[in-house]
Amino acid sequence: MKARVFSGVQPSGNLHIGNYLGALSPWVGYQQQFETIFCIVDLHAITVYQSPAELRSKIEETAALFLAAGIDPKHSSIMVQSAVPAHSELAWMLTCVTPVGWLERMTQYKAKAAAQQTVGDGLLQYPVLMAADILLYQAAIVPVGEDQAQHLELTRDVAQRFNSLYGETFVVPQTGLPSVGARIMGLDDPTVKMSKSATGAGHAVGLLDPPDKIRKSIMRATTDSNPAVDFAILSPGVENLLNIFQAFSRWSDEKMRAHFTGIRYGDLKKQVAEMVIAHIEPFQQRYREITSDPGYVARILREGAERVAPIANSTVELVKSRMGLYTESR
Ligand code: TYM
Q1: Half-sphere exposure of residue 48, counting CA atoms within 13 Å on the CB side?
Q2: How far apart are CA 13 and CA 191, in angstroms?
Q3: Which site among 23, 45, 176, 256 is 20 to 30 Å from 11 CA-CA?
Q4: What's the burial of 228, exposed, middle or buried (CB within 10 Å: 0-12/13-18/19+)?
Q5: Annotated catalytic, 110?
Q6: pTM of the prediction?
Q7: Domains of the chain by start residue, with CATH
Q8: Ligand 1 centroid vs 22 CA: distance in angstroms?
Q9: Kindly report the CA angle at 22 between 21 and 24, in degrees rounded to 5?
Q10: How far is the CA of 53 from the centre of ligand 1 (A)?
Q11: What pLDDT score was predicted for residue 329?
Q12: Is residue 330 over pLDDT 60?
């Protein structure tokens, strides 16, 4: 039996090249060797308020972006979290074995809570639901960007705590970080990660941005007061541009140094923009083809949920019986 890989994306805001390089593109490479499940985590999205109409349309848009990136429904299950109720069920059971202190320490919780007037309990429970997503499918590897590494550590801790309290139940998953592109920074401010929720013009390159807009955002990216690339003294902005180029081109470190040493920042930006556009244009073409068939994405999502639900339900049954909850099959 192939080992299982699970990962997810929130259908909130506009997906950007950070999501592509940190998650979607690496996912494609797992499809041949593993059983792969990719999830649109709508229950996570509502931990902060979402306009219902917008959330509804972002769910299918996100699924279409997975497909355009090369996730192949013949090899992978693409599904929506709320379509499989076992995610919420397991989350409750795991909530009961997760110390509050573990959750209050999460840096993403602290940052998101600081930006809200009223903090919903769901924001605190967020990583427990994420642990449920992963443990439900007994995933061996979870490919994510670096910002999710702390949540993955928590998932491992929750799995281990459950296993020690109730006996071996869950596979303890490994984090799969890409070697380049695990942390793409904001173009306007390279000290913060590129984020879906940041709204400022020139912060992110959206996966559906037209080429002119991509060029403009990259040409305006923050660098420093030096004129040209010097690998001995890379500022965060220049390092980020080089990272973006390397992640798309897959050039080696040696080739990057040989090519870019001494190149003026204006030229660096032009080359980065053209490299990004060369990858994004065919991606957007596939996206247009996928979305031109009105029922296609909905069908893929239905099939995905149908395929994974039996796995999820059997884990919930196992957990119930381990914990002494009522199950008929016991
Ligand atoms: P989300 O929706 O914020 O991001 C989706 C994926 O994109 C990666 N990512 C980045 N990678 C590189 N540079 C960036 N600037 C960047 N920004 C985002 C994220 O690391 C992620 O892999 N909590 C998760 C969703 C989730 C999940 C799961 C993931 C819910 N359940 C189970 C894995 C397994 C999140 O909010 O991702």
Answers
A1: 14
A2: 20
A3: 176
A4: middle
A5: no
A6: 0.97
A7: 4-177+294-323 (3.40.50.620), 211-290 (1.10.240.10)
A8: 8
A9: 70
A10: 22
A11: 67
A12: no
Cα(98)–Cα(93) distance, integer angstroms: 9
Give the percent of the chain with pLDDT over 70. Answer: 99
First to last CA, the chain: 26
CA angle 148, 97, 4 (to 5 degrees): 50
Active site residue: 112, 213, 216, 320, which one? 112
270 is catalytic: no
| CA dihedral (24, 25, 26, 28) positive or negative | positive
Active-site residue 196, yes or no? Answer: yes
pLDDT in tens, 5-54: 999 999 998 999 999 999 999 999 999 999 999 999 999 999 999 999 99
8 Cα–ligand 1 center, Å = 7
Give the mutation target among 148, 192, 244, 308 for probing the ligand 1 site: most ligand atoms within 8 A of CB.
Answer: 148
For residue 24, give the amino acid letter. Answer: L
Nearest residue by C-alpha to atom 34 in ligand 1:
7
Tokens of 218: 């990259």
Selected catalytic residue, list 193, 213, 216, 320:
193
- With a 6 Å cutoff on the Cβ, whether 130 touches ligand 1 is yes
23 lines ligand 1 (CB under 6 A): yes
